[in-house]
Protein: EF-hand domain-containing protein
Organism: Phytophthora fragariae
Amino acid sequence: MGDDPALLELLDRCIDTSRRLIGIRPRICYPNEVPVPRPSVKDEADAKAKKEEEGRRLACEAQKRRLAQRKEREKEEQEAQAREGMLGRLSHFFRNVKSAVGLGHVVLTNETLDDIEYADVCGPASQEEKVKPPVTLKSAQAHLSKDTFGDSLRFVNKLYNRAFGKPKTSDRRRVPSHMPFLLQKSIIREIKDHWTKEVQDTSAHRFRHPEDMQFSFSYFHYLINRAKIHPHTLEEIWREYLDANRNGILDENEVLTAASLAHGDAPPEDVVKEVRDCVQPEKREKVREIPTPEGTLRLSETLTPYVTLENLERCPSVRDALVKNVRYETKVELMPETEVTFHMLSDNYNFAWKQMMGTRARRTKFVCINDDMKFPSTAVSQILHELLLSIWPTRSQFELPYHLKNRYAHIDEYNAAQERRQIAAGIAVVILLLIAFVFRAELRALFGFQDIARARAASASQLTHDFQQAQDEEDADENPKAKEANTTPTSPKNKRRTRKASA
């Protein structure tokens, strides 16, 4: 309406709009109705400024408290490091080297959680005006929607009314709770195959859109109404109901189950016999001839094949009865809203305070707090932060302490850093090899490679000379003994033997 006094005056009047705009709920005007005074814009701005100032004060106190705790922890760490002595200093030195080189994944930080959430909360508030993004023709429908999430629910409900029919008022489709969901890929593929265009449009929307296939609502209500458009197939009945032991065949006990499911109740004996005869494959006779001394022995054996899925498909009466009578098991259980906690966090400080206090008083298995603040308030953020600290006061073993943070915020950054390190290592190796090749003579002289080679050659020649000298000495020792043996005189006994031999 702008600032026109004439138009602003109409806000306090009771106007019957039943004849003016079709589709708007009419307002009954009473003659003695007292108009509600509208607060001035200045009072609203002052209240908002006070709320912002109070929130910043609380956030500043929390930040100072966290920083004091951090200083105490750092002091304790320094004392522990001093008690460790030289080993602790070396460990701390190597950690700093790894961090400087870029090999470590964890680095020191000067920020705390309060610094990240409430930047410069102890200083004066900034007076920057928020610039709203321009509205384009393509996004006009989404911008004009006051509740895109609710509009998407209504959109899916219309689609499901066309496919499954409109439910009764008592069985109207409700919104699933904000909690973790277990999903089945085959069910998701069925939804994509049935509503292909809607799913593709949802994937193309960057942000929420009034014509989104809202995921959890679509999944669970499709699961409830799936039998209406996707009846049981014989393969599903075989897998889920008949083949209990998963061996691919039906034994006698499983044939009784098939007869009960086909009949829909306790089957009489003739129905069981009819089902057994229908699904039972034809018997085969195997004949073997064995030659013996007395003649040829002829052996015949009757084989009864197993009952498989193919045999069941060849029996139309049992097949159609199974598809007709087998009912879906209930896979969804409707639970009351008291099992979960869900809050739409708004700008109203008092209302948000009551919500957080109620969450502290009533603990549930799942807690979901949706940020619905149009203009984020540090006061509301502070009480939310305090609630989370009341539920989880200490960090888990998988979280880093307050004075450390992960160097990489995403796996792509880590992979890019790994590639840079590998490239740098390869360049360093190539440079070292080039230096070694260019200055190979200087390196040999520097490290004494030639002296070592000469020493090895001299030691080898000395060993050869020593070995040759030892051989000569052994030969010299053997030659005098041979000469003495040749000059020894013959004895008389030898002379006699010589004479006898000559005679």
Remarks:
- Residues 4-26, 112-118, 490-503 have pLDDT under 50 and may be disordered.
- The chain has 20 helices and six strands.
- The chain has six domains: 1-38, 52-117, 145-229, 234-325, 337-405, 411-447.
- The longest helix spans residues 41-84.
